[in-house]
Every structure is written in C-alpha cells, then in structure tokens.
Hints:
Layout: H1 11-22, E1 26-34, E2 37-42, E3 45-51, H2 53-58, E4 71-76, E5 82-88, E6 94-98, E7 106-111, E8 115-121, H3 128-141, E9 144-150, H4 158-168, E10 174-176, E11 182-183, E12 189-190, H5 195-198, E13 206-210, H6 217-225, E14 249-254, E15 258-262, H7 275-281, H8 283-290, H9 306-313, H10 318-366
Parallel strand pairs: 3-5, 8-9, 8-13, 9-10, 13-15
Antiparallel strand pairs: 1-2, 1-4, 1-14, 2-3, 4-5, 6-7, 11-12, 14-15
Bound molecules: guanosine-5'-triphosphate (GTP), magnesium ion and zinc ion (ZN).
Amino acid sequence: MIDLNELGWDERWASAFAEHERAGLIPARVGIEFNHIYRVFTADGEVQAQVSGRLRHQAVGRHELAAVGDWVALKPTASEPAGTIEAILPRRSKFSRKVAGELTEEQVVAANIDTVFLVMGLDRDFNPRRLERYLLTSYESGARPIVLLTKADLADHVSARVAEIETMAPGVPVHATVAIARETAAHDIIQPDVSIVEQYLGFGRTGALLGSSGAGKSTMINALAGTPVLKTAAVRESDSRGRHTTRHRQLIVLPGRGLLIDTPGMRELQLWDVAEGAKDTFDDIEVLGAACHFTDCRHENEPRCAVKAAMAEGTLTVDRLASYGKLQEEMRLFDAKRDVRAQIQDKRRSKTIGKSLKQLYKDRGRE
Length: 367
Ligand SMILES: Nc1nc2c(ncn2[C@@H]2O[C@H](COP(=O)(O)OP(=O)(O)OP(=O)(O)O)[C@@H](O)[C@H]2O)c(=O)[nH]1
Ligand SMILES: [Mg+2]
Ligand SMILES: [Zn+2]
C-alpha cells in the first residue's frame, strides 16, 4: 500500500478526480515514461500502464498524453497488475520545451512540480547563457526555480560564480555544493549537503532536476535517497560532457521527505512559449528599454538609447544584450511556426468533430 498523500495527493486533486471516481477509475501518478509505456503509482502499488486508444486519438499533440508527474485516471486491468490511462487531470504546473528537431511541438518534461532545480556543474558545464534559457522556461512553468551548482570541488572561485548567477537571476536562490563526496585540490573532503535540496521539498512536495548531461542530477538524487537508486557515469575529461546516462524521466519517492523527478540531460533546450518568462529574465533590459527615446527602439543605432547608455556605463554587458536579442529573434520564429501549427490542429479538430457528428447522424438514422 502507498499513501497517496505521500505522492502529493490532496483535497484539490480529489475533487478534480470526483467524476472519474464515479466512472470506476482509480487515481495514479505517473512515475516513469519510456516510449509510450508508463509505470504509475497507485494506492495498491506500482503498475504498468498505457494510454487508452481514445485518449491517444483525441490528443492533438504529445503534450496531451501523460507525462511524468501527471495525476491520471486509471482503468485497472482485471487479470494482471496493469492498467489503461483514461484521462489526465489538469496540470498545476509543467516544465515544457519544444521537442528536439524541426517540429514545433510541446514536450512536457515534468508535470505538477513545486520546485525546479536547475543543475549546472562548476566544471566546464558552467555556462550562464545556457542557464538563462532554463530560467526562462522555469518562470513559465508555475514551479519555483532554484539554481544548484554542482562540482564545487572542481572550481576555484565558487563564491564569485554564485554571485554571478545571483545577479543574473534576481530572487532565485543559488546554491553551490557537491553531489558526491569529493576531495578538493587542498585535500579537504566536501560532503554533499542534501539539506540544500530538502529545504525546498517536504512531505508530498515534488521537485524536478534539469540540466545538461553530466551535471550530476542522478548523483544528487542518489545522495538524497541515501542509496544508489539511479545509474550515473563519468563525464568526458576534455570538456566535462556527460554521456546521456539517464534515458527516461523518473519520479523518485523519498519516503516522508518529498519526491524528485530525474530527467535525461538535454542536448538542447529549445524554448516553448516563454513570452512572460522573457520579461522576468530580462527585467533589467525591459526596464531600460522603457526609458529609450523611441518606443520601438531596437537598441542598435538609435539616438538617446537607454540600453546603449547602460552598456557604455558598464552596467549592462554586451553578452547579455546579445542573448536578449537572440531570444527575441527565437520568439519571433516560434510564434510564426506556432501559427502554422495551430491552423493545422484546428483543421484536424474540426475533422474529428465532423466525423463524430456524421457518426451521430448515422446512429440517429438507425434508431
Ligand atoms: N567531482 C564531482 N563529480 C561529480 C559531482 N556530482 C556528480 N559528479 C560526477 O559527475 C558524473 C555525472 O553524474 P550524473 O549524475 O550521471 O550526471 P547526470 O546529470 O545525471 O547526467 P545524465 O543522466 O547523462 O543527464 C558522475 O561521474 C558523478 O560522479 C560533484 O559534485 N563533484
Ligand atoms: Mg542522470
Ligand atoms: Zn534603445
């Protein structure tokens, strides 16, 4: 038996589930997703599940299929410990990205999370510009972002780097630690400080770890679990790159202390719908921009440009303005692509509705 509250179940979920309960379905939380096969937690234990044909047929994109962290309505299979996912409860939060490759499709990386841990190594993985993109997506997610800088044993100027990230992400807590006990160059042994992560979790609360391959996400979860529940592997010496050890998303229960979702390192974090998040991340530039003489100032060669002035003063770096510009361009492209896709989806929806209407008339005719 599993206590559903331990998995994050509460009164609000129960009332969202009421109609499914009347239909004889049982609540379950998605623990693993791998090639459309799921393992879900139910009050009776963990079972294998797949999405019902109806749900799959109705879905206009993969974001409408179940994702790790989702609460779902499960129809148990009578003969074996398995079931069919008949419905997905509306998500309270989600971390999404655009699927890798050309397709403009949303992929939900983790659902119903309270906290997003953005994990970045202080080795060669350290890259503030990349973190900026993760922050953007976090602001959109509905979960609280926390930056976790791992591999503190491998960096010389840890506090300077923490400060660097702090100025980039106002209001976001930034912590540096190790995910595994290590000896520093000065022969001190540093132990992982699991309380850094624990303070943002707690009974029934869910966190997700995101970051590039090799950053130490699985290692950190193992430290919290107190036993190696997840596979880890050494990074490439030359550039600290990971080997994509974690292959699927997985929800780990830390009994009484919360839940953590491990995710595979992302090769690329393609942004999904970050308009609002952009405003938060580049708050400084947005504020400066409001003071430019021209309301449509592109901060290039326009006179009386507040952004250019800040750069001349040194309060704004060229790098930061460049990533702001890159983001603006990316959002323009994204919006254009999404418009095309929305048109296609609308067509598909009206086709499906058209079909079911036809069927309805046929059935009526027979009555
Ligand atoms: N020196 C040092 N090594 C660490 C630290 N944290 C993790 N590592 C090592 O980094 C390597 C990669 O760790 P993983 O936990 O597999 O990384 P991951 O983020 O889960 O990577 P993927 O599953 O590929 O996405 C392992 O060899 C870990 O032992 C740390 O704080 N210091
Ligand atoms: Mg991993
Ligand atoms: Zn300007």
